[in-house]
Predict the 3D structure of the following.
Amino acid sequence: MSSSAPAPATVTRSNRDPLRLVDVDFVRFYVGNAKQAAYFYAQSFGFEIEQISDLTTGSRDAASYLLTQGNIRFLLTTGLHHQHPACQEVALYGDGIKDIAFTVDDATKAYEECLRRGAESAYEPVEVSDEHGTVVMAGIKAMGRVIHSFVSRTGEYSLDNVKKGGQFMPKFQKQTDLAINQYNRQNPVGLFYVDHCVANVELGKMNYWVDWYSEILDFNLFKHFDDNDISTEYSALMSKVMDSGRELIKIPINEPAEGKRKSQIQEYLDWHNDTPGIQHLALLTKDELHTVSRLRQRGVDFLRIPDTYYETVWDRVGEVKEDNEVIRDLKILVDRDDKGYLLQIFTKPLQDRPTLFFEIICRRGSESFGKGNFKALFESLEIEQARRGNL
Ligand SMILES: [Fe+2]
């Protein structure tokens, strides 16, 4: 080590909190066939198939497709041989989310700090570098099959550079001539970032993972009017929301509860090899009506909402600036809290198993998650049932 005084930049860096999360670096999916999945997400949801890492770029173990839209970066990864963890996990869980990765100043320090606080290692620090820069990654285990990677980047691989279209990591190659990318640029869907990411855990484990996010990653229990358990006869789940701070990401954690019907959380666990995992990603748009009409044109399959929902919704939420008729035609849900309102809609599962789905959300002041819609949806289904004489 040099005996001379360290440069000011070094002092600043070493004094920083190792768990200061700069951004969501990427969300990694393990899928059975990344090439085909990339076209599904590009065609259905307007993502750009921006960069690819596969045999042709020197990646011998896995193929990964970087899909981008706004500040969303999905990495779709398929193993190229049967021992690759992606192949093994797809066999157990089907396609789904493996990793919510965070950009940090120093991935090794963030990882070591988490282990010191009691986290379990998912993988030790790995460094990949070439003449353009360096990327260091290390991972810790979260609930079930989910991990959080820490990613630190230098040189041309800085996240700012990646956001401007720079190369994602060594062995990735930009795609310049895909017709689907050109179409998507001309017909933007308008998704901006991952608003929240919901995890399903086993009965009795919600509070364990609330404490884990608080103790290991310094997340806070998000305080707002419905931060208590929302177990009702309708929702059949309990949920607490963990907040990363700095408006980066919120992670609601659900556990099953007894209700009138089988809990949707239990159904997820049944089809996810009894293993906790990510149930949905909520992708934020600033114009729900535009985004949802584009997604419907592209053939996205949304949950069916009974017309009866719209017989009571405006009494419940009051005035909104969007056209009420268009909201009804597009089958968008609306909810209000003390800070404002939100518009939301849920896709059907994105793969054959009833596991991962997306939510498309637009916030007009509201900071909550659409709790009022649980009850409203079940009630409107019952109105339909009653009309059929089946209640
Ligand atoms: Fe949600």
About this structure: The chain is about 30% helix and 30% strand. Residues 1-14 have pLDDT under 50 and may be disordered. The pocket of fe (ii) ion is lined by residues 196, 198, 280, 282, 359, 369 (CB under 6 Å). The CA atoms of residues 243 and 250 lie 4 Å apart.
